[in-house]
Write the structure tokens for this entry.
Amino acid sequence: MANHDPHHHHDHEHGSELSETQLRVRALETILTEKGYVDPKALDAIIEAYETRIGPHNGAKAVAKAWIDPEYKKALLADATKAVGSLGFASRVGDHLVAVENTPKLHNMIVCTLCSCYPWEVLGLPPTWYKSAPYRSRTVIDPRGVLKDFGVTLPSDTDIRVWDSTAETRFIVLPMRPAGTEGWSEDQLAELVTRDSMIGTGLPKAPGAAS
């Protein structure tokens, strides 16, 4: 169900050629800049931030720290906004972040039924499927079926709880730590944490599967 859209849909003989979409974006950027609506330096800073500093690797760091540090885990579940902020990850839109913990008897999933509210500061840009109407509607009424579409099958006695994100409150799933990772460092554990496992549509990688 997850989509991985290529950046270029057509092969070009010359690397300088731009796709139609890229040309439209470039033209819009030029117009907004000329009219003084956009500061090119600010735009470059935002793009650089989302390409290098903001992304699911931030959430993975928070999850890995919670797995090995009981006090941090307690803080994360009590006030995720403050806990991830202590790691340098702060929301730019003032929303409140809530962490929900998976257990052997409870699996959490995140959705936004109204639009695509998403914790950008810890998960980066939302995947295309997260914003799609089928995911937003089906997750609420058939979460187990949606999980199956993602290749996740849970025990029949595991409850599934769906959390609906809003502009004011957004969620991140604290997945269960994989077995066989005793003694692993925080960095090693972070390699096992996937974006989908923090949305609830996936599970962490198994030991040995980390790239």
